[in-house]
Amino acid sequence: MEVVVQAQCPGPSLSLPAAGVSNMVAKLAKACTLRISPEKLNFIVSDKVANGGVSMWCELEQENFFSEFQMEGVSAENNEIYLELTAENLSRALKTAQNARALKVKLTNKHFPCLTISIELLSVSSSSRIVTHDIPVKVIPRKLWKDLQEPAVPDADVSIYLPVLKTMKSIVEKMKNISNHLIIEANLSGELNLKIETELVCVTTHFKDLGNPPTARDAAARDRDPAQMAEVHLDIRRLLQFLAGQQVGPTKAVCNIVSNKMVHFDLLHEDVSLQYFIPAFS
Amino acid sequence: MLKCGMSGSQVKVFGKAIQALSRISDELWLDPSEKGLALRSVNSCRSAYGCVLFSPVFFQHYQWSNSVKMNDNDLTVSNLNCKLGMKSILPIFRCLNSLERNVEKCKIFTRSDKCKVVIQFFCRHGIRRTHNVCFQESQPLQVIFEKNMCSNTLMIQPRVLAEAIVLFTSSQEEVTLAVTPLSVCLKSSSDEPMDLTSSVYSEMFVAPDEFDFFQIGVDSEITFCFKELKGMLTFSEATHAPIAIHFDFPGKPMALSIDDMLLEANFILATLADEPSRTSSPQSLCLSQKQKRSDRLGSNSEAGKNVTSKAPECIQRKVAPKRLYPKETLTDVSALENHDSPRMKRANGDLSEVPESSVSNTEKVPGSLNQRKLFILREIAHKLVWGRERERERIPSRQVEWHADSMEPDVGFDLTNHEIMT
Question: What is this structure's pTM?
Fold first, then answer.
């Protein structure tokens, strides 16, 4: 099994998005799985009880980021590598690569399998400084791969574009102080509501004119009343974890709601696609 | 007796020094002398020592004198011997940026009759803020370490070191500095075998030409505590002066120092010894208390010479003394010259008397076991045996008085000195 990946000057384009992604992942779960295949890299957080049933799937096309990408999987038919690592370690390591001249990622085995990241920094005195990080990883055996496949996009009752995530985040943060139980509802007329209800108070935030993605509109035109809301009851902390990880505004953000079952967020950040699934409150 | 004054921007540097020393320990000695005002701090396991000496030129005005007391027909000249709790003094110098902006003048003076240090800030708009901090009488410790005798010296701009520090997570306690004449490497140090939950191993190579001064006499790899390095770094960024790192082989203490016209800062850190069965506690530093002035009148300069003219380093791994303290402190008084004491192995429980410099009232360095308890026991025993006058076991208290037209006089509150209470 082998991975050798290189990114070259000017300013390795890998570092920013990948650092952003690993940062995001670090906020969602402690451990995550990195899947390496010939065309892409995936960050996977699978729906375990520890995460509250939340799962995440993130995909990057390797050719958009690396100048050189070489990998050799477990075997010829299964040309993939699944690694388990602590997302925080990766995001810290990539943070130092922000002003790097070159970046190299390799899978190594130094007493323990590691992902070795070598960064060449250019210092003021024009001599280069070499920084190496060895991130401990665990290679996931093939029999567990089936649990880590791309989740199927659910058949949503309502699909809607999300409002500015930063606004949403500050609202949800304040709501968290009142209650743990959040209701998210949306309809096909571009309206999204975030509601919390307690004995003393009910707070609702209304977002209007958000727009609905085309595919949803076609399917819905058949039988769904555009004003009818599809709602899901969520644990507010899970939603907040997701929103907190979004540092940079995405190019595209869609929310798919399956009534009373789950919420599916589909984001696109430049060349990185991210999908996040939050199940309904049980 | 101490009386000094400084401007707003000087207060910032002074405050930064206190913050850096707070990383080492919870106690601070204020030690004025003819050389200037020294702030000293030693950590409880004696593995780190910090001293920042502000020369008289740093201050707008600086006055210092010994106090002379009549005591049973005996003239005793004593030093200030002022020990403050970090908890009392750190909040006073908390928001340094706002202090720099608002404070026009700061005066620090002592009132030995009341065992208090008074810190007064004369701020804008006619506001005057006074802090009275009680101090405990305690002779300051000094470390015996001749940094110029070290075979390896590096001098580097603080910014470069700061960039390196970012690599290491705060969960990592120790870092290793490995040098050869061709390269310098800063790396995370870890004894345990790696596994999935361990933190990232990072290393950074720095080329020799990035250093202002690079002299490597012997290839070595030293491991020291990260926390104190960070403290020193933030202080050096405030002074804009390069940091000099002096070190030798593993086990021997290393020095981080800043030498400026106005101040001199030295942080002496113990390093891990290169033993096969090494445990994580670094060797203790060799410390001595300043000569008790009452013993030798007018021999201040001699005392000073005594301390520094000894052989340079003093590496000793102390074992928990099992004898009663009063007996032990009496035996300390004997003059000892032996500084080439071999490193003592902790494992074989060697109880032999550890040699120290020949100054009476030497502070015995506690062994690695139950150090805190021993330190406290010693403090108490010391007081019993030597019968210090006006020993303040009372808890230092802090009162803040506000003098301004619109302000109400404010609270006074007590802070416990946890060192004595535990």
Answer: 0.65
